[in-house]
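Lecture 7 notes: from sequence to structure.

We start with a single chain of 200 residues. Read the sequence below before looking at the structure.
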Amino acid sequence: MAPDVKDDLHRYLQEAREALLWKLDGLGERDVRRPLTPTGTNLLGLVKHLAGVEAGYFGEVFQRPFPEPLPWAGDDAEPNADMWATAGESRAEVVDLYRRVWRHSDATVAALPLHAPGRVPWWRPAAQPVTLGRVLVHVVAETHRHAGHADVVRELVDGGAGVRSGSSNLPDGDAAWWSAHRARLQGVADGAEPAGGFPA
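Now the structure, written as tokens:
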């Protein structure tokens, strides 16, 4: 049987969604909000951001708007408002919103063929006409990219690592093995030539 491309794309999207939420498991409100990069990347902010991404791409783009307002997506929202949860936005609320957006997105994917036309108003004019297939590829890529960010942030929070629940996809090393591995990599990095190829 020929593969169903739409089903395959949807499966990859769902795997990334679930991997992202899994990165929050076992953490309290503080840890899911902690900014752990210079630009403030945090776990709950990644979930909030992707809720807005899907609401836009599988909603407005195909004239099937998500029925709930997303205040951080408005023209008057402060910069980066979608990348962090306010004190008034609980973890449960953000996660529940993301799941509601999934259902809306999934309904759009189920209702339309891959060649269904849409328009992305926030892209440059020549690129705005799209199909459901192109949008699915775009959102799968963006969701996996941010799930990768969540991998790194979770490891910085408490050392938790792995690709998905039940499958770490990592070598079976204990803490001593990983410490030695990291020290070895640090040694290689310390011995590398600086930019320009000249000795320090």
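The beta strands are 117-119, 129-131. Keep this in mind for problem set 3.
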